[in-house]
Amino acid sequence: MDIATFLIQCLNAVQYGLLLFLVASGLTLIFGIMGVINLAHGSFYMIGAYMAYALAPAVEQYLGGGFFTTLAVGIVLSVLLGYLLEWVFFSYLYEREHLQQVLMTYGLILVFEELRSILVGNDVHGVAAPGWLAGTIPLGDVMTYPVYRLFVSAVCVAVALGMWAVLTRSRLGMRIRAGASNREMVRAMGIDIRLLYRVVFAIGVALAALAGMIAAPVSSVYPNMGAQVLIICFVVVVIGGIGSIKGALVAALLVGFVDTFGKVLFPAMAGISVYLLMALMLLWKPEGLFKAG
Amino acid sequence: MKIRYALATLASTALLTGPALAQEKIKVGFMLPFTGTYTALGVAIENGFRLYVDEQGGKLAGREIEYVKVDDESDPAKAPDNVNKLIKRDNVDVIVGTVHSGVAMAMARAAKQSNTLLIVPNAGADAVTGPMCAQNIFRSSFSNWQPAYAMGEVAAKRGHKTAITITWKYAAGEESTNGFKEAFEKNGGKVTKQLTVPFPNVEFQALLTEIAAERPDAVYTFFAGGGAVKFVRDYAAAGLKDTVPLYGAGFLTDGTLEAQGDAAQGLLTTLHYADGLNTPRDNAFRTAYAKTFKLQPDVYAVQGYDAAQMLATGLEAVGGDIGKKAEFSAALQKATIDSPRGKFTISKSHNPVQDIYLRKVEGNENKVAGVAIEGLADPGRGCRM
For chain A, which terminus, N or C, has the lower number of CB atoms within 10 Å? Predict the structure, then answer.
């Protein structure tokens, strides 16, 4: 591997890692702060991707179209979906055992997949990237790199910074962190913890849907796309430390590098390299890289 | 009252004297995916099968056909149970299925043990007509080896000297890329690397970078469905499409063209069926299918249709007595099936000996661009019959 190829592989790794972070951050937020194991998180990613595909014609008709308008509409819808789901289902799960949470959120996966099948069908669909991002830039004389992929990375970095700012620098973030460490005390201080959780959950759903929407032009949309993402996201969350946004970022990048170079250097082991990493991490630091709180 | 009574008598006399009761119905058991990713394929196969039977007036070799259906969910873990439902509970005479190779292997095993007639209308696992072959197991579709081998020869004859193959690390992918390698190297080429991605991972960027760094003359790939869409788009986005020609087994561009868009235009693939064959046989089939089901037929519909034709041919030879497996098998091996894809015969190991078309993507169609290899027979390695 010469130096140019090596650098491009690093770029691939960072780029994949950042996208993983975007999906996993919502999961770690819900898991870490609210203590709910949410298997349906992959479905939110899938819903996002399908929204990028299915909403486009309607947005075209009523709002004049455009990828970013679709994105905005999608985010609003997913926040509403998250808010509603928390209200109807998840708010009953906080005091329950993990097994019951797993059962219900697994049920939601089945429901969402079936709804997807009924509403949009089982075909594979492509989503066009916006025109000004559709080009490519040459990387040396080896290959060209799609501008849209770099854009996706930029969005992921922006979201990471935004989350960091909100969680550590704002009153909302303070309450969220307080709620995570002592729910009862926060309630005693006169803060509406139910509303707070509803908001956090809605944000988590929106993050997954956003990841799905901006990934749609590179990944295309297809049935069961959520399941693949879900597993790798749990790996990221476990490695990073449950509930830690910083941990999710570091772990996602780590997974990106291990996956990318694993495929190139040890192709026979490519299928398990990431899980090997997780197993080693659990032996070394059972609580993950960064413990929340 | 009187009229109704008279009608009822008439009807029952007709039933009693009609030829329908002369022999029992033949029970066909569809074991196909009716839910999940492959639903559309399962439906197309069933439609194709029914279309042929209906064209014969609902009877094959004078015997009426009755259907039972089991959804295999494309789940190999459930396959033994599902196939036994058909064999033991429903007592079917023929099993038709399926799409997923892993499920088809379990079906072949059960069919072999119970000596039930099995016609595989899609699954391309080489082993079905290789080590698993049996007197009562037939395939109306293809083996993974077939389109791949044909493409290997095409690529070598187009002057390519080196190639890299890339696929998912699972049986179908490996059978396909090995078939390509066999023909490509036999014709003077050299496969320098065989890349794989864990199934069903669709993160290809790392391996595309490796291809770009290696610069082979050509790349051969086997992907299907969502993976095929993403691979073709990523390949084009990496700027490789214009510098390193991409070749694939037909599934790369079947049912995926709308999603692949510009990235797929001009790609060459090989398969046993193509758009724009424009033969009277194919045109008649396509019109009839579109009229009956309000759907455009595809390769899966053809495979289902031909499964019914193969059953009909065998049944005719044994006068409708499905118990005569040896005569059934011998007759099919001598027969020529007049398929919409073009006429084909059945090899010793019960796989179609068929023309493999070279197809070029134009718009949303896989237009026929010639015949890659005429009458290509799967070697049926490991088959002892």
Answer: C
